[in-house]
Amino acid sequence: MKGKPAFFAALLVLFAGFSADAAITFIYPSPKTLVKRSDYLILKMNNPQISGIKVTVNGLASDTMLIGSAEYKKAFQDLVILQPVWDGGKNEIIVEGYDGEKKIEAASTEIFFIDKPAANVPSQYKRNVMHVPELEKYCSPCHDMNPTTAQLDTNMDKKNPCYGCHKKMGNTNFVHGPAGTFSCAYCHNLKGIPKYAVMLRDAALCNECHADKASEFKKKKFLHGPIEAGMCEICHDPHGSNFTSQLRLPINELCLSCHESVGKETHVVRLTDGAGHPLKDKPDPSKPGSGRDLSCISCHNPHGGEARFFFQNNVEDRMQLCQVCHNK
Fold first, then answer.
1. Amino acid 11: pLDDT
2. Which residues contact 74 (CB under 8 A, 6 or more apart)?
3. β-bridge mates for residue 44, sequence order
């Protein structure tokens, strides 16, 4: 994985015996699917002789993980859950099963990890769906895979049936309110197709709570493309993230994932040293004392405005915008 540190934190869960055709089964993510989170890699060993496994992702191999002790077999049988760190784009995965030092099984697949909004996903990758009967059967010995609506409405984290597998969604710096209270059923429908599907997406769903933003946007003369199209989720993670406002990436990385040319060319003005106007690594002079760093939103409102380029303070003249910070 391009020089990333070892990526496995062992998580092993109880498993009751199942049959499967393949020697090693990829349960999650399913083979040739795309995912938006780097959360789990779930494997099932179907050969009782396998005592250790090694996982290689994009050429970077893990140490051999031992799964053959009597204690392990008694507690976990042959289901293994790992926490991966995927590379953006295609990830080639190889799983090798060992009996002692002898390799006796091997399986491989690939998945596509969407790490930025403008990612170009090849057509051969389908959306990963976990909550289908053929996959839920692997989880049912330990998890209630058919909770009632009342159980889903329980916002006491550990009592909510979603908590056991999805608690990591709350382990971020900025958690969206419904996700933080495990109010999963507000957006996810138990009877959706597929199961737990979100019946409404983007602005149609977000505006049920954020009606104030919808009203605000209607008043703007110019709207940023994703806002005009109602595509809230292209920039905001509906569960949470480590970036302010549940953004999917740090501000500048998010903006430049679509506006690539801005990061490659001289921006706004060429300074005496030949460089363009700084875009980062300085305090934001438009918000003195806020502790906020300079970024794209220091000059541009990411949702829209009264000026064509969504200038902050709704000024239309570029020199007027400069004077917000350079008021000499």
1. 40
2. none
3. 25, 79
Closest CA to 297 of 261, 241, 247: 247
pLDDT at 150: 86
> What is d(CA 112, CA 92) in angstroms, rounded to the nearest whole number?
9
The rounded distance, in Å, linking the Cα atoms of 141 and 222 is 54
Residue with tokens 């040739």: 32
Q: State which of 160-164, 216-220, 263-267, 282-286 shows the largest mean pLDDT.
A: 216-220
List, as one string, the DSSP characters of 94-137.
Answer: EEEEEETTEEEEEEEEEEEE--STT----TTPEEP---SHHHHT
| Token digits of residue 200 | 């409404």
Query: Distance between CA 134 and CA 310 in Å, rounded?
Result: 49
Lookup: tokens for 108: 């491989």
Is the distance from CB of 62 to CB of 54 less than 8 angstroms? yes
The strand pairing partners of 43, in sequence order, are 26, 80
Q: Report the candidate in 205, 206, 196 with the shortest Cα–Cα distance to residue 165.
A: 196
pLDDT, mean over the chain:
87
Task: Please choose, from the candidates 81, 83, 95, the residue with its C-alpha nearest in 3D space to the C-alpha of residue 13.
Answer: 81
pTM above 0.85, yes or no: no
What letter would DSSP give residue 64? P
The region, left, alpha or beta by phi > 0 then psi within -120 to 50, assigned to residue 110 is beta
DSSP code per residue over 248-290:
SS-HHHHHHTT-HHHHHS--S---TTS-----SSSB-TTSTTS
Which amino acid, residue 95?
V
> What are the tens digits of pLDDT across the range 17-63?
333 446 899 999 999 999 998 889 999 999 999 999 999 999 999 99
Cβ contacts of 122 within 8 Å, gap of 6 or more: 90, 112
Hey, how many other C-beta atoms are within 10 angstroms of the C-beta on 260?
Answer: 11
Contact residues for 282 (Cβ-Cβ < 8 A; gap 6+): 293, 294
As to burial, measured by CB atoms within 10 angstroms (0-12 exposed, 13-18 middle, 19+ buried), residue 72 is middle
